[in-house]
Amino acid sequence: MKPRYLPALLLAALTLPLGTHAQTRTPAKSAAKPSAKATATAAAAAAVTALAEADPEQLLAASMVLLGRLDCEFDQKMVISRTPGADGYVDVEILRRKATFKPVRSATGALRLEQVNAGDLLLVQIPTKTIVMDTKAGKRLVDGCQQDEQKHEAALAAAGDSNRLGINAPGQMQITGTPASKH
């Protein structure tokens, strides 16, 4: 006499290892490759935590940065915004790149935005325009970028207002006297 449950037990015994194997493979596969969005979020969080705390001089420089969308030569665009979670730093999007920059005041009134984490970009903001430099190649990448305030300053300078040369911030080098005449 054959037991009635023997075929069902054999079938269950044969399928049990396959079911267990499939269950162990599925989580391993999804854990092996995180989504691109999760990777980008983790990288951005790591970058913010890696930034040094800004000192008062850097915070002052950051308060002077002209933020927003800038129109550049050759129909290029740039966006400058505060770095979320990192006071004293700004994020810049240009040339299909986004990077974090540290603002630094200069004695002449120009504002330098130095790319952090060994980047090769340098931005220089003056009242009438922003310039993007490649420090490794030693050349300008983009020139003539202007935010609304810079467009206004450029118009005033073009109209003959000669007092539009500096940012006029504390600590800026003061130039006195009259310009030398041209011979």
Q: What order do the helices and strands come in, and which of them pair?
A:
Layout: H1 6-32, H2 36-50, H3 56-64, E1 68-71, E2 77-82, E3 90-94, E4 97-105, E5 111-115, E6 121-126, E7 129-134, E8 139-145, H4 148-158
Antiparallel strand pairs: 1-2, 2-3, 3-4, 4-5, 5-6, 6-7, 7-8
Descriptive notes:
The chain is an alpha+beta fold. The chain has a domain at 54-158: Lipocalin (Beta Barrel). It has four helices and eight strands. It has an eight-stranded antiparallel sheet. The longest helix is centred in the first third of the chain and has 27 residues, at 6-32.
Quick rundown:
The protein is α+β, with helices and mostly antiparallel strands and 183 residues long. The protein has helices spanning 6-32, 36-50, 56-64, 148-158, and strands at residues 68-71, 77-82, 90-94, 97-105, 111-115, 121-126, 129-134, 139-145.
Observed structural traits:
26% strand, eight-stranded antiparallel beta sheet, 183 residues, single chain, globular, 8 strands, alpha+beta
Could you say what the CATH architecture of the domain at 54-158 is? Beta Barrel
CATH top level class name of the domain at 54-158: Mainly Beta
Radius of gyration: 29 Å
The secondary-structure class comes to: alpha+beta
Shape: globular
Numbering strands along the chain, what is their spatial order in the largest sheet? 1-2-3-4-5-6-7-8
Q: What is the number of beta strands?
A: 8
Strand content: 25-35%
Element-level helix/strand string: HHHEEEEEEEEH
Mean pLDDT: 76
Query: pLDDT under 50 segments (min length 5)?
Result: 9-30, 174-183
- Ends: how far apart? 124 Å
**Share of helical residues:** 25-40%
